[in-house]
């Protein structure tokens, strides 16, 4: 309301000044008549009043806060521009101390209630990098834990040549004994260059952290490391040890891990990982990966797109991802869903036995495209021992081109004149010598109606026999079901 009144007063003053200037010009050039006597005295008083009002409005406009701009270098409430603390946006000078001073001021601001118990709500405080590129020689850390609802955004950080090689550009670690260090910390619109000295962002024991529209490069350990805590959301971001767009001549030497999820209930959505030995390492439960494009390092060079390293308790969903010449490895997977993904360049899925358990695995509705070398789309790594406990594994309805389909559900047929028909599923079924369910039909020609039965199921083959010789076709569907130890 005050702003509207100020604008109306300014508009009135401007119009009045125009009128006053016109009257003055008219008086100077004689267009305005001169009066004598009583009328002349009134005219004189009006001109004096006009001049007085004009002077007051000019003073008022000069002092008006609407006309005055913000003072440079003074932070707005809850917004902390880092150049106000002496940070060098050109990247020539070390800005570590200046950036940490801004972070310290942000967390020392008065809070408005709490988030989760023990976390003070800073009300959306923002540490603005103002589009600058800042060199830092030490990890950026908040001076104390126990705060939330704060954002660092809008610029670039790069590690100096003496940055510690075991450090992270942004580090949310703390000595706090509380269950969580921070809550609702947001990193947005950042480019992080680790300069081949350590990692990008370290998030331990934090709750509801958001990484949005970030570009993280030149890491040697992890681009992002999430340790313990819950519900870190990584969205719309790009990660790579080397900046490339595929076909890099040094690809076989890529190292490091782009995203390392060592906590529960995290989500990675719409992310591109373009160089690293491992795209995403998962060792926590109940994580979801959606819409991620992996071309970090080809399987043929020893790379892995997704490595699920939580034997016996995977609880991971991989949906709508693009596995570009790099595949998925799952150790003793229990509750794993891989669906609607695209595997290009002979990329495949490996189920790796650690304790011989695979349970509750769905690999369905994916597309696999290869080079025609006959590589299986799903493979078993039993180098540490065979799978002894198998249950609820469904691998089916995958679209395969230039590779060999593998499945736990298969359909086949046999045709001939005789008393026995054999349908061999060993080339399609994933697990050896494991068929639990069989459904078949026999269609005889010539109107005959022989007696027939299922006679043998072994070595992933099905044998159907009749009591008399007949010309017939046998159609069979099988499923690999449960296998228990012993």
TrEMBL record:
InterPro entries cross-referenced by the UniProt entry: PbH1 (IPR006626), Pectin_lyas_fold (IPR012334), Pectin_lyase_fold/virulence (IPR011050), QRT3-like (IPR039279), RHGA/B-epi-like_pectate_lyase (IPR024535)
Domain of life of the organism encoding this protein: Eukaryota
Keyword hit for rRNA-binding: no
Gene3D superfamilies given in the database record: Single-stranded right-handed beta-helix, Pectin lyase-like
Residue ranges occupied by any Rhamnogalacturonase A/B/Epimerase-like pectate lyase domain in the UniProt entry: 82-301
Keyword Signal attached: yes
Keywords: Signal
Signal peptide region: 1-30
Protein name, UniProt field: Rhamnogalacturonase A/B/Epimerase-like pectate lyase domain-containing protein
Organism of derivation: Eucalyptus globulus
């Amino acid at each position: 309301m005050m702003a509207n009144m100020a604008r109306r007063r300014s508009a009135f003053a401007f119009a009045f000044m125009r009128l006053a200037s016109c009257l003055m010009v008219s008086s100077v050039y004689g267009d305005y008549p001169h009066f004598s006597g009583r009328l002349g005295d009134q005219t004189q008083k009006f001109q004096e009043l006009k001049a007085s009002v004009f002077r007051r409005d000019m003073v008022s406009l000069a002092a008006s806060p609407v006309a005055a701009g913000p003072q440079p270098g003074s932070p707005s409430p809850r917004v902390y521009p880092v150049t106000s603390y002496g940070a060098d946006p050109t990247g020539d000078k070390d800005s570590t101390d200046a950036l940490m001073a801004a972070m310290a001021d942000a967390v020392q601001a008065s809070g408005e209630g709490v988030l989760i118990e023990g976390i003070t709500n800073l009300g959306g405080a923002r540490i603005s990098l103002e589009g600058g590129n800042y060199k830092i020689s030490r990890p950026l850390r908040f001076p104390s834990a126990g705060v939330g609802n704060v954002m660092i955004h809008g610029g670039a950080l790069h590690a100096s040549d003496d940055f510690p090689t075991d450090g992270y550009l942004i580090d949310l670690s703390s000595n706090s004994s509380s269950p969580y260090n921070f809550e609702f910390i947001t990193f947005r619109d950042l480019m992080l260059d680790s300069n081949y000295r350590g990692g990008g962002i370290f998030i331990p024991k934090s709750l509801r952290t958001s990484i949005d529209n970030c570009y993280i490069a030149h890491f040697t350990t992890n681009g992002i490391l999430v340790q313990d805590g819950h519900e870190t959301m990584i969205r719309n971001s790009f990660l790579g040890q080397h900046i490339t767009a595929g076909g890099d001549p040094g690809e076989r030497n890529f190292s490091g891990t782009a995203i390392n999820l060592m906590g529960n209930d995290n989500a990675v959505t719409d992310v591109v990982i373009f160089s690293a030995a491992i795209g995403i390492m998962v060792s926590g439960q109940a994580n979801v990966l959606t819409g991620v494009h992996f071309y970090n390092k080809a399987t043929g060079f020893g790379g892995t797109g997704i490595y699920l390293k939580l034997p016996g308790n995977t609880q991971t969903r991989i949906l709508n991802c693009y596995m570009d010449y790099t595949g998925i490895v799952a150790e003793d997977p229990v509750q794993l869903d891989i669906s609607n993904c695209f595997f290009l360049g002979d990329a495949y899925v490996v189920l790796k036995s650690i304790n011989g358990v695979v349970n509750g695995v769905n690999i369905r509705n994916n597309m696999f495209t290869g080079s025609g070398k006959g590589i299986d789309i799903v493979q078993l790594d039993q180098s540490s021992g065979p799978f002894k406990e198998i249950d609820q594994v469904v691998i089916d309805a995958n679209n395969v081109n230039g590779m060999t389909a593998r499945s736990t559900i298969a359909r086949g047929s046999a045709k001939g004149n005789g008393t026995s028909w054999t349908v061999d599923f060993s080339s399609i079924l994933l697990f050896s010598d494991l068929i639990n369910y069989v459904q078949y039909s026999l269609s005889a020609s010539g109107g005959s109606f022989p007696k027939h039965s299922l006679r043998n199921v072994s070595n992933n083959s099905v044998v159907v026999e009749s009591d008399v010789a007949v010309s017939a076709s046998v159609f069979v569907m099988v499923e690999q079901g449960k296998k228990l130890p012993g």
